Every structure is written in structure tokens, then in C-alpha cells.
Amino acid sequence: MHPIFKFREKETQGILDLLNAVTLGTNGAHYRHLDTNERILEADHPLFLSMERNGTTLGNVTFCRRQGNWYIRYFAFSNALQSSGKRASKSGMKNRLKQEIERFFETGLNGKSEWGEIDSFYAYIDPKNEKSLWMSASFGFKTIGHVATQTYSRVKPKHSERLQKIQAWDEVAPIINATFQSYRHFATAQTKKPPFYVLRNLEGEIVAAAKTSISRWEIHRFPGKLGGVLTKIIPFIPRLNQIVNPKEHAFVVPEAVYIKDNDPELLNELFEGILHQESKNLILWWVDEQAPLYIQVKSKMNWGLLHKIIGVHKVNIVERSRLENDSSTPFYTSGFDFI
């Protein structure tokens, strides 16, 4: 590749500075991750492809290498690349960037990568982010499914007597593996990291389970027509201001959610109990719209106040693959990938 492009398996301060400064989203929600430094360290088998010039990181693509399927964790560019310098220079750098990334995708999927055989590259894109959609299409990515961003909120979440917080992956692995092993791109690199929450029946059987993470965002704009106004007035709206704090929006992120018989009452008890235990008021659950659990419960749950205001936000799953995939099979979504 051109000398301004560097491959690394460990983050640099320049990469961290770039990612910490990025505001995500365009026409929909606008937000900034506040846990980037921690998330970088948690990334599974990362590879950083950076564009560097005069000691400054101008762009970065971070991959999480999950066997043959590589998740694109970050795709970020500095304001300097987007808005400074002479127009001809900027255009040349952007063209060079596009050419080199395209070459990397092509080489990887043709089996010529020095990092082993790659079956696919995939990412999640807000369908209202026209710039990202155009970019992914120009690189040959196709939309292969959709993820629902489902909110679950409670102002005063209730305690569940039978909720347990556990640290041992071995206790939940049989149920989670059996439930999700048929899903596309199921990988446990992130899922097996504790903590886990479970509900047990009187016989000690696990009837509900989820792995959880805590995330913090700074929200500049919510999705929807009134998203910009909503961000400004939330601090003054009783009850809602207990659920959302735009300056530091802390929430629970579940994944690998197992519910016996897809029972909505069990899901409600699990989610509400987790909120109580974690002293939080909001869950953001990213789940494939085709997941059997979500299909069964989505119209039977009281998702809470925030859901009534903003509804469900859809995210596109985009992929460039050398293999044919069954689009009728649900896609496994790791909470880590969205935070």
C-alpha cells in the first residue's frame, strides 16, 4: 500500500484521538461514544488500517477479525481530511484512500491477504446516514438484513427475587450456544465475557439469560423529526429526564438474550430486574428483526416511555462476501459492536 497507510495490531494515541473526536450519524441520531478508550482494549483480534500524514492520523478503519468474518468496528476520518487544505489535495487524498481500501477488500476476499482467508467483511449502517450508505455501496457492500434498535425503559425498575448475576460463561454457554449457533456470524469472543444475568425456576433450570454491558454516550440529537428539539428539552421533562441524560447517557446493552418459550413476561422480568440491579433506567437492545424471540414478543411488551416517543430505529446489516448466505437465517448481533 501507499506509505501513508499503516497496518497495526495495537491502537496508537493518534487513533484514539481521532475516534474520541468523532460524532456518529448524519441525518438521524447524532452521538459520541464516551467509552472509546476502554472499548478499543476490549476489541477481539483487532487490525487497525490507518491513514497517517505528518504525524497525524487522518483516517482509520478498525477490523475485529472473527475467524473468516471481519467486522468493521470503526470507519472514521478527521475533520482535516474532510474540510481543510486545497480542494485538489483533498480530492487526491480521498481518491487514494478509496483505492487503497478497495484494494484491501479485494485482496482479502481473493485469498491473498497476509492475515489468512477472509470470507466476508460486514458492518452496521444507519439507513439515514446517506454518506455511509453511499460509501458502503461504492465498495460493493450489500444490505443483507436489518437490526432493530429496541429501547426498554423504566423510571423505577422493580427487583426480581430470582434474578442472579453470574460471572461463569460455562453456566450459560450450553443454552446460548444451542440457541444461537445456527445464526449467521455467531461468534463468542465478546459474548463469553461476563457478566451474565439469569432467571431460574424452582427446579434450578435457567429460563432466561443475557450477557450485558454498560455503555455511555453523549447524545447530540435523537432520531426522528423532533430529535434535535427533544435533546434540548429532555432535562426539563419529568420522568423522561430520569431515563435519558444527553450529556452522559448511561444504559445497559444485552446480547445473547435467551427466553424459554419466548415468553414476554420472562423477558420483562429479566430486563426490569437487570435495570434494578445495575441502577439504570434504560436498555438498548440491538436484535435482528428476524430473530424468533423478537418476532414473538415485540407486540406483547410494554417497552416503556422512551419507546412511545421515538419508536424502533432500524439499522442496516451490510456485507461484502465471497460466499452465498441464507438471508432467511437471523444474524447474530453482539452488543459490543454497537457501543
Please describe what this structure looks like.
The chain has eleven helices and 13 strands. With 339 residues, it is α+β, with helices and mostly antiparallel strands. The protein folds into two domains: 5-146, 3-Layer(aba) Sandwich (Aminopeptidase); 148-318, Aminopeptidase. It has an eight-stranded mixed sheet with strand order 1-3-4-5-6-13-7-12, with helices on both faces. Strands 2, 8, 9, 10 and 11 form a five-stranded antiparallel sheet that branches. The model is unreliable at 83-88 (pLDDT under 50).
Instruction: Please give the radius of gyration in angstroms.
Output: 21 Å
Distance between the ends: 30 Å
Number of domains: 2
Fraction of helical residues: 25-40%
Largest sheet: 8 strands, mixed
Q: Tell me, briefly, the overall form.
A: globular
- CATH fold-type name of the largest domain: Aminopeptidase
Biggest sheet: strands side by side, in what order?
1-3-4-5-6-13-7-12
- Hey, roughly how much beta strand do the residues contain? 25-35%
User: Mean of residue pLDDT?
Assistant: 90
Strand and helix order: EHEHEEEHHEHEEHEEHHEHEHHE
CATH class of the largest domain: Alpha Beta
Structure characteristics:
339 residues, alpha+beta, Aminopeptidase, 2 domains, eight-stranded mixed sheet, five-stranded antiparallel sheet, 11 helices, globular
